[in-house]
Amino acid sequence: MDSPILANWGVVSSVVGGAVAVLLYFVKNWRAVEELKMTCQKQEQQSAALALKVDDYHVSAVAREAKLREEMKLHAEQVRVESLQQRAELRKEMTDLVLKLTERLANIDKTMALVEERTKVLTEASKEQDSRNKWADRILARLEQK
User: Which helix (H) or strand (E) holds 99?
Assistant: First the structure.
């Protein structure tokens, strides 16, 4: 009984060993491919999570920027309103001061006119008094001569 399998036992064992080796190689590589797929899937999940975090950070940064811009606008508006109020107050004070100054100048003008008028009256009265004194001196001089 010489069977062909037994007669070619070395070849058969080599072929079976080779087939087993190839099968083990493919199983090993299949496991490695599955591990790579799992690793790739995990990295994709991590990448998606990081992308969500980046989006959240971006959205919050944009919201903060908008909030800060709004605050700056409100602050600028407040400063503008305050400056307008101060300017209006200063204008009112300046107007009041100008009116007071004008009133004082008018009073000074009236006083100066009164002083000028009284000076004229006093000058005329002084001239009249001088003429009376001269007249009285002449009368006295005539009386003394007689």
Answer: helix 9-145
Residues in CB range of 5: below 8 A, 6 or more apart = 12
pLDDT beneath 50, residues of the chain: none
CA–CA distance, 32 with 38 (Å, rounded to integer): 10
Contact 5, 12 (CB under 8 A): yes
Distances in Å between the Cα of 101 and the Cα atoms of 90, 97, 108, 110, 115 are 16, 6, 10, 14, 20
CA–CA distance, 50 with 58 (Å, rounded to integer): 12
Q: How far apart are CA 28 and CA 34, in angstroms?
A: 10
The answer to whether the CB of 6 falls within 8 A of the CB of 13 is: no
